[in-house]
């Protein structure tokens, strides 16, 4: 205590001991925090009043300036003005707390957690009142902490000194009538006059004002003349008429639930919105303070309580106060919140309401009776859903503008929230408000709402129609809630609904519907639709949006989805539509459970959460995405790093997510809330900047994982180091090489490693003995990319570079399953925690989820893409090599007839017209009889792999080309052979060229050496040798009349040549990549060329002008306009339709250059397609060996 204050207290000691009652003063001093309860008890223990006074003064002399000021203020409040005047001149410098205490500003709550962002926002507004009077409105819903925020905002010495040297005066209002309001203003005026008299004894006290008007004028006088630069805080204003009584041209801070109240007063105005909930860490800190614990040691129910009430300060405080008395009731209070039993959450406190339901009801009661009924109708809304006003105009039968006006009233009173970032505005309720309304059980509203809506969903929504978007998303929710089961069946089992909603909302919302309402839907039909969406979801995410009917035609014939699609395809075909039915699909079963395309770019890592409900993925898009494992619905997407994200991992409790990247950084995210705005800093959490990033590695960080107890994070890098880091304090626990560590618990560790010397094998070691337990050898054509052991069985999953995933039993060393379907390298695999599911991620931008007990080693025929097809009067004969060293021959509708061959896998095959045999090509071509498989001839002579073979039309001559740079013309019945030599590189293909006017048939060959050569097949004489391109010649086609032929090259050009003059007549420039294929139209007027970028160009053959460019609007998942290289082209006989193959098959309108239809195979990289003469049947094989026989739907 200052010496002057101490001396004054000693000089006045006798007068004070004689007159004061210590018991009256001590209540105020305890409230100010300068006196403790124990000290009060010791003073009260003195037998007489005078001894109590002496003891209090003796105690004061041992305390600080704040105690002196508190004692002085207590004398004022208890009407000891004469005694207070003895101490006035020796008052120490006034602190902000003293000013606030004098002005009646409440002390901080016993349990207090700061909200600095909001406090700074209010202080910023208050600084605007420094030069002139005005109003600052702090508004928010019931229990959001407005009063505590207002009190905390003025606890700032600079603010009080610079802006409000006249003091801060607090007045609690609440719901008052005129009489009560008069009493409050009288009390405020008396307090202000008393304080003024203490400072200036010459001023006198006036009688209390007798009317509200007189009280207003008295307050105006005091604020303008005696407290000209002071702040008046009006807490909990409900009525504009009450606020008008304080419209006296002073500085006012008011708290309210109704943001529009300040509209009725004059002067400058600003406002601060108080969020309805605390951040999770703030709410947990409050609960921890109540139970005298630490946030990290609270039970799991603590987080659930905070999430259930959305961090409401009122609910958190009520529950915390109850838990202080009953610390074992965490589960009980969580259950109470979940059951919406708000009346049971009751606790006496300084707040005006002892229970949440009271606070909610008070807000609703201030509405007019008409608006109160409308507000209760909002119970039809779903949690966390924002709706446009037009949705409720259906229910209320009001114009949208009228609904907007009603909503504005609700928003002003903090009963409804508005998202102003959308046009039209979107509105939503806080969960607590919605739960409170739900207790009123207005279930009959749902039926009327749905019936009033049906007419609005007859057609597709217009762009930006928020009302339509709402109904497409939530119509099923309202139907189920209204028990409209039959209507729900009709809606969800309609392919039209699937198509429209998938186009608008994406497939994940649809899959969620089938999962959510599966219990009330037909199980079998629900399975048909859910399987269709789960396996085609990545296609339905593509833009332009695919034809759902065509996709559905690939479903099994027994599926309800296929039945509806076939009916629609048949009906559209009568109007000129083009649809293809996959007629041989019955033997093929899809093994995938879900296919998701979460990123644009390669996916390097994906992992299950430990509860199995979520999947996280990351890749070259530099993003981290979390989605539901049942439907693929996106829960979170963030830009995680500045470079490729190479790995992601959930912590064992799923609260954290770690990512590591090529940018050499490791980051840890809060995975429990799955919201970008709620990402928290887990390291150095007290620093103001984001500190959730770990540095230290010098090269890309390839892998990360958490320790089982969530304490450590291990990371490995291309710099050759392994680091184990403490998550909480960011310190290195282990930094290899050169350190070692031991685990406290014994764990069974199985380590799988990939040897640089043996990239096609997987080795399993015993960690303790370092002995190799098992070596699994995979295909020599593939490299092991990743492996993961199943936690519930002896299976290990292996990700391979040849687009496949294999499952092996490590006890029997037997391959148990092939998981085919990815279109590019598979980078990662992981089993779900219970082992029932397996996920894989790939360069093809997809994550696939497989059911472990349903995948198996395929017994189906896996064919090579080199094949030949014979169309003969409606019959189809297909010949192709398979992956079991057999040549497969079949006719449509018949079983495969397979012929065992030499150990070397067969190469391309060729069928001659019936009844002649066919040829297949290992190193030495063989000619066999159909269908017996009897070998008719073995033709030896080529020294390297044969790449192509073809019979001449009469069937007696077989032509072959090889990697040995030669072409051989065989009279296969006699074994005679003519060798055509001259190419310098492999000859991948050739064609027969009939020239005019002699009508002689010559052989046209092309090679990677950039040349075209023309041969006399009888003599082997080279007739022409054309150096036609600077790069490899990739394709060649002869016009139907034989007058022209076209070549395409890796030099990105195509050329048209005359077969009469052997000169180039057209140079076709424009492609941006290798030109892979070409085809003349049947009338010889057009030439189609396709490149490796997926672009197709149509040219005028006569003058070489470009007619059309056929391509998608944007690149697809394979970074192509056609899913890969354009490998084959065919015109229809009438030249109106062009067929192209690449990653998928497309049909184009030749005149418009527009796509007519697309067929998506299960695999990709189609090499060739065979077309029937009438252009109605199409046969091809994809890269995973699936045969497709497609027929036009008539």
- Evaluate the radius of gyration: 41 Å
**Unreliable spans:** 455-464, 674-691, 737-758, 898-907
CATH topology of the domain at 299-522: Arc Repressor Mutant, subunit A
Strand content: 25-35%
Count up the helices: 31
Mean pLDDT value: 81
| Largest beta-sheet characterization | 5 strands, parallel
Give the name of the CATH architecture of the domain at 299-522: Orthogonal Bundle
End-to-end Cα distance: 102 Å
Class computed from helices, strands and strand pairing:
alpha+beta
Number of E-state strands: 63
Q: Which term fits the overall shape? A: elongated
CATH superfamily of the domain at 299-522: Winged helix-like DNA-binding domain superfamily/Winged helix DNA-binding domain
Strand order of the largest sheet: 2-3-4-1-5
Q: CATH class of the domain at 299-522, please?
A: Mainly Alpha
**Helicity, in percent?**
25-40%
């Amino acid at each position: 205590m200052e010496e002057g204050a101490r001396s004054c207290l000693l000089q006045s000691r006798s007068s004070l001991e004689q007159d004061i009652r210590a018991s009256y003063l001590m209540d105020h001093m305890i409230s100010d925090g300068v006196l403790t309860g124990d000290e009060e008890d010791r003073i009260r223990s003195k037998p007489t009043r005078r001894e109590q006074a002496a003891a209090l003064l003796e105690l004061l002399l041992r305390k600080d300036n704040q105690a002196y000021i508190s004692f002085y203020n207590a004398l004022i409040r208890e009407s000891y003005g004469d005694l207070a005047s003895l101490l006035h001149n020796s008052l120490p410098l006034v602190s902000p707390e003293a000013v606030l205490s004098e002005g009646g500003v409440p002390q901080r709550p016993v349990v207090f957690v700061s909200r600095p962002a909001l406090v700074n926002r209010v202080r910023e507004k208050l600084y605007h009142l420094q030069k002139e009077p005005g109003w600052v409105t702090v508004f928010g819903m019931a229990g959001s902490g407005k009063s505590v925020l207002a009190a905390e905002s003025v606890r700032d010495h600079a603010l009080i000194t610079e802006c409000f040297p006249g003091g801060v005066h607090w007045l609690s209002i609440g719901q008052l009538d005129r009489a009560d309001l008069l009493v409050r203003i009288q009390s405020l005026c008396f307090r202000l006059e008393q304080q003024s008299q203490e400072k200036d004894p010459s001023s006198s006290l006036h009688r209390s004002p007798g009317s509200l008007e007189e009280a207003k004028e008295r307050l105006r006088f005091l604020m303008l003349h005696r407290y000209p630069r002071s702040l008046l805080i009006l807490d909990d204003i409900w009525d504009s008429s009450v606020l008008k009584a304080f419209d006296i041209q002073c500085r006012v801070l008011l708290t309210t639930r109704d943001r529009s109240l300040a509209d009725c007063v004059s002067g400058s105005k600003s406002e601060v919105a108080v969020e309805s909930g605390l951040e999770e860490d703030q709410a947990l800190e409050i609960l921890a303070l109540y139970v005298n614990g630490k946030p990290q040691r609270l039970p799991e129910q603590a987080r659930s309580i905070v999430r259930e009430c959305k961090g409401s300060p009122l609910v958190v405080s009520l529950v915390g106060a109850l838990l202080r008395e009953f610390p074992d009731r965490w589960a009980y209070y969580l259950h109470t919140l979940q059951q919406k039993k708000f009346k049971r959450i009751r606790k006496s406190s300084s707040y005006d309401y002892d229970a949440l339901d009271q606070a909610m009801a008070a807000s609703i009661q201030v509405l007019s009776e008409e608006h109160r009924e409308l507000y209760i109708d909002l119970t039809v809304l779903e949690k966390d859903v924002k709706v446009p006003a037009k949705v409720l105009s259906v229910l209320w039968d009001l114009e949208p503008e009228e609904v907007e006006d009603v909503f504005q009233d609700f928003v002003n009173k903090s009963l409804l929230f508005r998202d102003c970032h959308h046009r039209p505005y979107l509105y939503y309720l806080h969960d607590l408000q919605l739960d409170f309304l739900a207790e009123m059980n207005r279930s009959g509203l749902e039926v009327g709402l749905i019936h009033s809506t049906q007419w609005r969903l007859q057609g597709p929504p217009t762009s930006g129609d928020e009302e339509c978007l709402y109904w497409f998303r939530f119509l099923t929710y309202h139907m189920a809630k209204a028990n409209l089961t039959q209507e729900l069946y009709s809606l969800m089992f309609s392919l039209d609904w699937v198509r429209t909603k998938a186009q608008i909302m994406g497939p994940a919302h649809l899959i969620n519907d089938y999962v959510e309402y599966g219990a009330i839907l037909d199980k079998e039909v629900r399975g048909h639709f859910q399987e269709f969406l789960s396996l085609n979801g990545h296609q339905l995410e593509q833009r332009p949006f695919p034809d759902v009917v065509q996709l559905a035609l690939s479903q099994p014939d027994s599926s309800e989805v296929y039945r509806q699609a076939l009916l629609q395809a048949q009906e559209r075909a009568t109007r000129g539509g083009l649809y293809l039915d996959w007629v041989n699909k019955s033997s093929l079963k899809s093994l995938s459970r879900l296919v998701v395309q979460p990123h644009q770019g390669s996916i390097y890592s994906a992992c299950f959460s430990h509860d199995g409900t979520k999947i996280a993925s990351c890749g070259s898009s530099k993003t981290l995405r979390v989605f539901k494992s049942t439907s693929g619905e996106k829960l979170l997407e963030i830009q995680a790093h500045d470079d490729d994200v190479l790995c992601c991992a959930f912590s064992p409790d799923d609260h954290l997510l770690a990512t590591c990247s090529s940018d050499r950084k490791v980051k840890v995210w809060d995975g429990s809330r799955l919201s970008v705005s709620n990402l928290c800093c887990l390291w150095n959490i007290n620093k103001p900047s984001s500190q959730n990033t770990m540095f230290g590695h010098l090269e890309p960080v390839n892998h990360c994982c958490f320790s089982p107890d969530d304490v450590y994070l291990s990371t490995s890098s291309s710099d050759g180091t392994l680091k184990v880091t403490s998550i909480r304090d960011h310190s290195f626990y282990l930094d290899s090489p050169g350190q070692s560590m031991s685990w406290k618990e014994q764990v069974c560790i199985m380590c799988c490693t990939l040897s640089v010397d043996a990239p096609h094998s997987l080795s399993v070691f015993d960690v303790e003995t370092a002995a190799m337990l098992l070596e699994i050898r995979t295909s020599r054509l593939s490299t092991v990319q990743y492996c993961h052991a199943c936690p519930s069985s002896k299976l290990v999953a292996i990700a391979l570079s040849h687009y496949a995933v294999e499952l092996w039993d490590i006890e029997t060393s037997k391959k148990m399953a092939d998981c085919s379907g990815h279109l590019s390298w598979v980078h990662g695999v992981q089993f779900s925690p219970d082992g029932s599911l397996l996920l894989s991620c790939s360069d093809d931008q997809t994550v696939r989820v497989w059911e472990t007990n349903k995948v198996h080693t395929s017994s189906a025929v896996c064919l090579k893409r080199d094949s030949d097809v014979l169309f003969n009067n409606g019959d189809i004969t297909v010949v192709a090599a398979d992956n079991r060293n057999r040549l497969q021959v079949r006719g449509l509708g018949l079983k495969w007839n397979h012929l065992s061959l030499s150990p070397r896998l067969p190469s391309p095959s060729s069928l001659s017209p019936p009844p002649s045999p066919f040829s297949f090509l290992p190193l030495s071509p063989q000619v066999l009889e159909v269908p017996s498989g009897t070998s008719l001839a073995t033709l030896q002579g080529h020294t390297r792999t044969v790449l192509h073979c073809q019979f001449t039309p009469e069937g007696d001559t077989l032509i072959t080309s090889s990697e040995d740079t030669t072409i051989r013309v065989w009279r296969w019945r006699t074994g005679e052979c003519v060798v055509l030599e001259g190419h310098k590189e492999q000859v991948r293909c050739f064609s027969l060229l009939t020239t005019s006017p002699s009508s002689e048939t010559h052989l046209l060959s092309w090679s990677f050496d950039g040349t075209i050569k023309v041969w006399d097949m009888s003599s082997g004489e080279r007739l022409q040798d054309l150096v036609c391109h600077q790069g490899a010649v990739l394709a060649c086609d002869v016009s139907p009349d034989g007058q022209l032929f076209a070549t395409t090259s890796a030099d990105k050009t195509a050329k048209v040549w005359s077969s009469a003059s052997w000169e180039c007549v057209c140079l076709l420039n424009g492609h941006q990549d290798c030109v892979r294929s070409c085809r003349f139209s049947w009338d010889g007027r057009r030439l189609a060329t396709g490149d490796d970028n997926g672009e197709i160009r149509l040219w005028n053959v006569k003058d070489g002008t470009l007619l059309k460019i056929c391509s998608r609007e944007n690149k697809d998942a394979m970074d192509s306009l056609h899913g890969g290289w354009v490998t084959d082209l065919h015109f229809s006989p009438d030249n109106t339709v062009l067929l192209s193959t690449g990653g998928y098959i497309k049909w184009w309108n030749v005149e418009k250059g527009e796509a007519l239809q697309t067929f998506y195979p299960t695999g990709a990289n189609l090499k060739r397609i065979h077309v029937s003469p009438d252009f109605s049947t199409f046969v091809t094989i994809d890269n995973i060996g699936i045969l497709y026989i497609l027929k036009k739907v008539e």
